[in-house]
Amino acid sequence: MCGIVGYVGPRQATPILVGGLRRLEYRGYDSAGLAVLDPTGHLEVSRSVGKLSALEQLLERQPLLGRVGIGHTRWATHGRPSEANAHPHRVGGVAVVHNGIIENYLDLKRRLQATGREFSSETDTEIVAHLVDEALNAGAPTLVEALRVALSQVVGAYALVVISERHPDEIVAAKNASPLVIGIGVGEMFLASDVPAMLEHTRDVIFLEEGEIAELRATGVKLSNLAGEPVTRASRRITWDAVQAEKNGYPHFMLKEIHEQPRAIADTLRGRLRLDTADAYLEGYEIDPRPLRRVVLVACGTSYHAGLVGKFMIESLARVPCEVDLASEFRYRDPVVGPNDLLIAISQSGETADTLAAVKEARARGGRVLAISNVVDSAIPRVSEGTVYTHAGPEIGVASTKCFTAQLAALALIAIHMGRRSGHLAAPEAAKLIAELAAIPTKMTTALTTLGDLADVAARYRDARDFLFLGRGTNFPIALEGALKLKEISYIHAEGYAAGEMKHGPIALVDDGVPVVVLAPRGPSYEKIISNLVQVRARNGRVIAVGTEGDQQLAEMAECVLFVPDVSPLLQPFMTVLPLQIMSYAIAVARGNDVDQPRNLAKSVTVE
Ligand code: F6R
Fold first, then answer.
1. Is 528 annotated as catalytic?
2. Cβ contacts of 207 within 8 Å, gap of 6 or more
3. Which fold does the domain 3-246 belong to in CATH?
4. Best label site of 49, 369, 429, 576, fewest CB within 10 Å?
5. Would you list the domain boundaries of the chain?
6. pLDDT in tens, 440-469
7. pTM for the whole structure
8. Which of 352, 380, 405, 581 to mutate to test the pocket of ligand 1 (most atoms within 8 A of CB)?
9. Which of 552, 549, 553, 575 is nearest to 563 (CA)?
């Protein structure tokens, strides 16, 4: 999730663009840059790696003067953080900033290279600058027309913003899947990926919709669609304050991130699944499961719970034995690892000390290592053979939510990839699973809407002393994750258990002061988990059930029921974790806790 800003009007663009980028800082980024058209229509670009202050220092030494400009803070997805990979990307007299992913960038790059075009970055964005430049050279009469020609070749998610020396008094922008907002001033226009970037200049905004293109001039904005037909939409007045705006109107980053999950999953899957070959692709990394003795998934905390779900996915689809280990245990237990073992290290931050040490340990013993990370070029990807990046965007709330489900998506991709290559996953089954996986974001959106804020559930259970979470199969890791989420932000003691273990000890805890969350979606262990639920009820336990939409039997047995859409058991964690995240959040809010920065916790654990 990069940050984008743009300005056209009578004032100097640079301070407005830098101020806008500063307002988007909360998203986190690895590099930043500006492109400005000077009064003679000459394009100048400045970029630098690291904090915005580095770019500001550069601009002090070499000021960019002009009244039309665009800016960008980058959160790397293609190519490591570097000046060459920072936006804006310039080709000839064209500069482009982009948020999103161009799926067919390799095909387009090959085609452009065959025409003699050279590339100076590893990004997918530079392709668009070439395509617009190519269209202008081929005679496109306007910048918007050149952008349309470029977009007709592009597959993917984008918020794209373009300026050009040949059309020096305008900015053109297009949106597909990534957000873009236009700010309407008096004799000036603004543009940004997010409202806070422009709030000090205007509160009148137009949110671009999918497939729309905007032409911005100081005098106003013209909207059209990809086919060139005009679009009209009234502006909206923003009433949020600046802090609320950073959270997109949500009271906390955690809640915003919970609601970003459908987008995070869609972006993580984008371009990596193909229905025609019924296969999943890992950006150049090939896993041949046949010589593998086993897979070892290592991680900490929430990422470890994703690993536990990953074990189900890989064992069931690829039939390769899997172990899941806490990174802090793995590194110190003299692990048996050799060239036929594949270690999959899962880390949102890519820099957790124990996970990094586990990777180094495995590599030192000759093991193969694949990372799953949300931060491009972070420490763990750097010491791994390959990385499947999750495209969740920066996660700011300390309690991980969208990165967890994005990790599940990455693990599903790896499992399908391995299953197809091990010969255990036939094309028709793979195609069915791929279709179901592709539908997960929409089902998550439905679930988030129907679950609501769960404030009533929070009011009922906020004073509980302890909580138990029970699940079976793929929902056992979700029971662990539900307990962790509740503990870390509500400070209520909670334990997650495999439901079958309940009578081997934890049932002694059950009384009317201990709510028991039972994960009971329909599936192969439904009957078993229902009998666990009955046992809890028989001891006066208060049951909060998570079940499949329409399950009346379950609703009648539980004190409270939270429904999620029906999906196959392997993919249920994407759904069943949602009510647990929302419930933990709602209880923490009801208890007056600092949800985004819970006590004693840090977002990245870079020490042991
Ligand atoms: C819990 C949480 C932590 C992290 C853990 C690993 O909400 O966020 O348990 O999952 O510290 O962090 P990463 O994934 O960055 O290695």
1. no
2. 179, 180, 181, 236
3. Glutamine Phosphoribosylpyrophosphate, subunit 1, domain 1 (3.60.20)
4. 429
5. 3-246, 253-450, 452-590
6. 999 999 999 999 999 999 999 999 999 999
7. 0.83
8. 352
9. 549
